[in-house]
Amino acid sequence: MQREPTVADVVAARRVVDRHLPRAPLERSPLLSSDFDADIHLKIETFKPTRTFKVRGALNKIASLDGAARDRGVVAASAGSHAQGVAYAASALGAPATVVMPRGVSDTIVRVCRAYGAEVLLEGDVYDDTLALAHRIEHEQGKTLVHPYADPLIVAGQGTIGLEIVEDLPDVELVIVAVGGGGLISGIALAVRSARPAVRVVGVEPEGADAVGRSVRAGRPITLEHPHSIADKLVAKSTDALNVALAARYVDEFVTVSDDDLERATYEYLDRISLLVEPSGAAPLAAVRAGKIDTRGRKTVLVVSGGNATPALIAQIAAREQAAGAAGAGAQGAGAPGRGAERVSDLRLA
Length: 350
Hints:
By secondary structure, this protein is α/β, with parallel strands linked by helices. The chain has 14 helices and 10 strands. The strands form 2 sheets. The protein has a 6-stranded mixed β-sheet with strand order 1-2-10-7-8-9, sandwiched between helices. A 4-stranded parallel β-sheet has the order 5-4-3-6, with helices on both faces.
């Protein structure tokens, strides 16, 4: 297993991140606080370049390379968000980048990566296909692989979110984080629990993609055969021993949410808080709203990890939620269910 990062590594990563990125806001939500009888704060990562937290770890990893390695360049495999983060970080630090993504990735993400100067290769249908090609490029061309979660420097970079949380809200009691491959929650939990050991850290996974929680319970990385969720950034077949070890030590609990929960939370952010959040970033709110996590009386932070949702996806979620609300209002007297519209996650977007 790789060397585990320490809080000193996160502090060092903070110096790198602060040189290149604006500080992500931590905003109190009076509306959610009232709803949940709690003190709810949102750590909003959607204002970062590429609209997601991923750029933090990418910057920290690429900044660690010596001149020769930086000249050879970096390579990354991604379903989209990590590729954009690596493309941005490589451009900022003067390193050539190659990013490998599945063929079905949106044209907008491809264009964003190319706008940052990255070479874009499309391979296969899922993340595992892209990772195989990225490894070949790493070995054949001598480029440095920037892994999305299985790297101490990536974990330390994502952990800078945790340092900001405890600085901005010293008496925080509960931090809720979405979980995909495990890099984000590993870093945040390491930073938060090192500074405030009494803080409770909870991870939220989709019901159809809960590899990290299962791996922590098993004590080793396990592999899911067919992970799936509308929260595509959280869909990972497995995780890494590094992330399992950190999560086992610092994360208190993992819960799962349904795609219905994720869609409702995505819509709620837009409808009630005027914030564009992708389903992956809405997972913490989904868990609280579904009653999976009790926030009552607690000073709580929901990490809003990303906002890369297409107009088509948001439109379909909005249409479904509005139809469900109308059906529920019209059928209250008859006792009919209020969610009769077709599932967005069953409408496979191009």
